[in-house]
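Backbone geometry:
***
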Amino acid sequence: MFPSPGTLIFLELEDLPPGFGEATREIEHDLLEMASRAELMFMRAMDALSKLDQGMAHEVMAADDKVDAIDLRIESRCLELLSASHPEGSDLRVVGAALKMITDIERVGDLAVDIARAAIRIEKELGASDVVDLPRVAEISRSMFHQSIEAYVRQDAAIVEEVITNEEEVDRLFLETRDQIHDLMRRHSDDVVTLSLLLIALHDIERVADHAVNIAERVMFMITGELQPRG
């Protein structure tokens, strides 16, 4: 079973930034739990892929139900709050940001499931997952996701900028690793199924970084009140 959600996000309810009432703090608390569970899923999915561990992969897939349930709970609370309290200014930004962020967090959980499924299929193909260094790309993506949530907790624009800057490194490694997989496909046609699954997993890993950037940009909106268009 997974460790408790708080082990990765490492913050308790009293550590959260002040909202405009208990309802908002409950939303913030649920969002942190959801993010922590999604991060754990991603880490375990990468472990399952590295070790070709079917049991661990199935644990990741089962864990997605809890992330989806929290997603629906947060959405419901946000809509109730918007309807009942009519928040304005920074309060409205808190609720609006939460509604956008949970979409990205939920997608991270879905991507972890996709990686876990790839691990199962590669194991059945009697393939190898260590022919390219996917964990190197995954660790940067995971760190970006973790930092984006930390930026939300601390309302820290400097952390936001760090997340956005790190996207360039993920993009560089993505292209480098993709080229390596393509080269292996040309030279080892018998392994094309396994290599195709690794290529899909690589895309999933890169998408985690994209979702981290989306969250970070939403945090910047919470801080400044301005949405910055992406170049």
